[in-house]
Amino acid sequence: MRLLLVEDDNHVAAALSAVLARHGFDVTHARSGEEALRALLPDSGPPFGVVLLDLGLPDQDGFQVCGRIRKRTTTPVIMVTARADVRSRIHGLNLGADDYVVKPYDTMELLARIHAVSRRTLPAEPAAGPEETTDGRQPPLRIGPVTLDLPTRQVAVDGTTISLTRKEFDLLALLAQRPGVVFRREQIISEVWRTSWEGTGRTLEVHIASLRSKLRMPALIETVRGVGYRLVSPAV
């Protein structure tokens, strides 16, 4: 995967680039906002899979850079910064960042977050060959008796349509696109609610409980204690 690292500290960038390279990433280092935006131009090479964006850049604030990135590409953006306050987290996510990591961070956690945001973008890419229906539409997701039609936002259990709220559908669709994969609570809040974890945890629990009730399959969504949730494919 090509990765764009936007970091003005050369020492930090060199150390992180070495780690990313050992894990198979092709890293391009940009030292300023303008350099990063030039690297993202369509004719500058193969598309990037993820952008790691520092906020303290020499030419412009990273929040401004994120907003400009979002106007030209859907490439996932992870903000990597020392700004740990809740306002900054919320502002970054509202601008379109896919995740927000506070320095100092654990390198393995950062790698996990990179893989997580890249996985979440896969369903948005054009499908090909047998993964498309004959009319070019994305086929429904099927997990046991549950069917999710993403384009029409319809859910059915054993052929019976189930009425879900917008957030309930978004939550179920997120889990259903990667059955068996554990999604962290913070990750779900960021993806579905586009905000940070603080103050939203109870909302997530309520939506999980509502989904289990409406689908009449309590075991479909498994709680992974201390981590988050995953969708469990029912035994055939």
TrEMBL record:
Protein name: Sensory transduction protein RegX3
Every OmpR/PhoB-type domain range: 138-233
Keyword tags: DNA-binding, Phosphoprotein, Transcription, Transcription regulation
InterPro entries referenced in this protein's UniProt entry, alphabetically: CheY-like_superfamily (IPR011006), OmpR/PhoB-type_DNA-bd (IPR001867), Sig_transdc_resp-reg_receiver (IPR001789), WalR-like (IPR039420), WH-like_DNA-bd_sf (IPR036388)
Modified residues (4-aspartylphosphate): D54
SUPFAM superfamilies hit by this protein: CheY-like
Matching CDD domains: trans_reg_C
Ranges of residues in domain Response regulatory: 2-118
Span list, region Disordered: 122-144
The keyword Mitochondrion is annotated on this UniProt entry: no
PANTHER family noted in UniProt: REGULATOR OF RPOS, SENSORY TRANSDUCTION PROTEIN REGX3
Species assigned in the record: Streptomyces cuspidosporus
Residue ranges flagged as DNA-binding region: 138-233
Organism domain of life: Bacteria
PROSITE patterns, per database record: OMPR_PHOB, RESPONSE_REGULATORY
Keyword DNA repair: no
